[in-house]
Amino acid sequence: MEIFKTKSALEAFLKPLKASKKKIALVPTMGALHNGHISLIELAKTYADIIVCSIFVNPTQFTDPKDLEKYPRPIEHDLAMLNEAGCSGVFMPNIAEMYPQGADENWHIDLGKAEFLLEGEFRKGHYQGVTQIVKKLFDAVEPDVAMFGQKDFQQVLMIKNMLAYFHLPIKIITCPIIREDDGLAMSSRNIHLSPVDRENSLVLSKSLQYVTDHFNEFSLDELEEKAKRFYQGIEGVELDYFTIVNGDTLEKAKSKNENSLVALVAAKVGATRLIDNMIIK
Ligand code: PAF
């Protein structure tokens, strides 16, 4: 597995591979890898010959400087996991490589109304930062296909909107959420959960599962209401939202007949903010 710290070194590695018509997959990450990321690599292998994983903790998508500061960076462990998973190359630039003019570089594109809903309401500007770095990574790798996890459901939609904005010919693949045995969605942030938080964190997957299992029994409003009750009286858990939305627009679903329905949740568990979702249909 090759490691690249600069765009030029990465480009030199990819050039002959592209010339010999090899398909390239990009798996963008911020490191602190877990089996959810490895599942992206595994799925990438079914689409491409060469898998490039990027590890870059992108400052422009953090709305809370403390969150950025405490973001885990277990780089040796990450590299060992990627090597074992059969990743071809790792791109791990520093901030100056990605933001030569500084991380306050100007960026604003139209991502549609959905940018301001859900996470966009709680983390203002987050998706501008995400699309800014993903565009830079796409420019550096020019992949045929790029892999993203369904756990960040809104992120995938925003990245697709960014692709449409720039007319980029890259196929986006969304990989299903990988869960711990007890249901908790895998996330780099789970490392911050205390034993009590870890127990409490199960409320997210349980409430989503309830809505999925009982979808035919209640109205949308009743389902949301019942899901929200799961959070009442759990000390140290603060619900930001639990909502059932149209999966294409992220607008609150008006009817069960809409062709794509997703239940999404965000909650603070102790000091850690978690998100999760389940696609109903
Ligand atoms: O999902 C993530 O880890 C990040 O938002 C991404 C896509 C790597 C961009 O920094």
UniProtKB/TrEMBL annotation:
TM region positions: none
Pathway connected to this protein: Cofactor biosynthesis; (R)-pantothenate biosynthesis; (R)-pantothenate from (R)-pantoate and beta-alanine: step 1/1
Assigned keywords, A-Z: ATP-binding, Cytoplasm, Ligase, Nucleotide-binding, Pantothenate biosynthesis
UniProt binding sites for ATP: 30-37, 149-152, 178, 186-189
A Pfam family: Pantoate_ligase
The UniProt record lists the keyword Transcription: no
Record's subunit section: Homodimer.
Protein's name according to its UniProt entry: Pantothenate synthetase
Gene name as annotated: panC
